[in-house]
Design a protein that fits this description.
With 291 residues, the chain is an all-alpha fold. It folds into two domains: 198 residues, Hypothetical protein af1432 (Orthogonal Bundle); 75 residues, no CATH class. 65% of the residues lie in helices and 0% in strands. The chain is built from 17 helices and no strands. The chain binds fe (ii) ion (2 copies). The site of one fe (ii) ion (FE2) has 4 residues, from loops.
Length: 291
């Protein structure tokens, strides 16, 4: 499908705007820099993260939360790196710092608290589901969690940096009962999957996370990629929307693409089991505030 010239122009404008983003959180910039340096040590990373009190405490709360599924309590960032590993802490720190923008720099097109709960729930759901399927290959459970947490990162960018335009997107999607993605394409020239993919690549997220961001609504589409992460995030996103835990800004009834079920070789009952487990943790997840 070719992109109309007007859309191409809008898309270019948006990407240019994203490239010029003035105020990425300093900690996020530093985390990206340190983790992009092949010579960086765990200590370097711990130092950067520990400088920012709110990101460190968010990171520690995340890894120690009941739904994260880690059973040893971790009390410091350097301890977290020793126990969980450099890659995991890097990814979780990215996740924590992206969401942890200050209320002043945060747009208000989305209900931020509900959107955060949606992201957490998809992360927890994906991780549980991954442990029940046999097709995850090399992808570890932490990467799965982070992929779920960041799958809608494109919406975070729209909400925080294109707040006025995005308010209109959310309003039209609601009023006309349209998919939010369709309205994003119409008004912004790119949907949250495209914008998210662009940023996730630019910020050197791990490939499975990029796949989840780009294809969580098109699990049949990834070419030259395994497709497992896209399928997993798609199913988790569908289930969390269906049981209405948090809110992603989309009010149309969710639709499940059966391709994802085939890719994951999901037998009977597994999805129901995970849904029940998440239902049991609903209160904990919903009360996990972002502040
Ligand atoms: Fe999405
Ligand atoms: Fe979502």
């Amino acid at each position: 499908m070719s992109i109309a010239p007007a859309d191409r122009r809008k898309r270019r404008m948006l990407i240019q705007k994203v490239d010029e983003l003035p105020a990425l959180p300093v900690t996020l910039m530093e985390i990206i820099k340190v983790t992009g340096n092949p010579d960086a040590t765990a200590n370097d990373l711990a130092q950067v993260i520990s400088k920012d009190q709110s990101i460190s405490s968010m990171l520690l709360r995340l890894v120690n939360s009941a739904f994260y599924g880690h059973f040893r309590s971790i009390s410091s960032v350097s301890r977290a790196i020793v126990i969980l590993g450099f890659q995991t802490v890097k990814s979780l720190a990215l996740g924590a710092s992206i969401f942890h923008s200050s209320p002043e720099s945060r747009g208000n097109a989305l209900d931020w608290d509900k959107f955060w709960v949606h992201s957490l729930a998809v992360a927890a759901f994906s991780k549980k589901l991954a442990s029940k399927v046999d097709v995850m290959g090399e992808i570890d459970s932490e990467t799965v969690f982070v992929s779920g947490l960041l799958h809608d990162v494109g919406k975070v960018v729209f909400n925080n940096y294109f707040s006025e335009e995005y308010k209109e997107v959310v309003m039209i999607a609601r009023k006309d009962k349209k998919w939010i993605r369709t309205v994003e394409e119409d008004l912004m020239g790119i949907d949250h999957c495209g914008a998210g993919q662009y940023l996730a690549s630019k910020w050197h997220f791990p490939p499975p996370v990029i796949e989840a961001v780009e294809f969580h609504h098109d699990p049949g589409k990834p070419e030259n990629q395994p497709g497992t992460m896209a399928a997993l995030t798609h199913v988790a996103d569908f289930c969390c929307n269906q049981i209405k835990i948090g809110a992603s800004g989309n009010e149309k009834d969710p639709e499940l693409d059966e391709v994802a079920i085939d890719i994951l070789e999901l037998g009977d009952g597994k999805l129901d089991d995970v849904t029940t487990e998440i239902e049991n943790e609903r209160e904990t997840i919903e009360s996990f505030g972002i502040e």
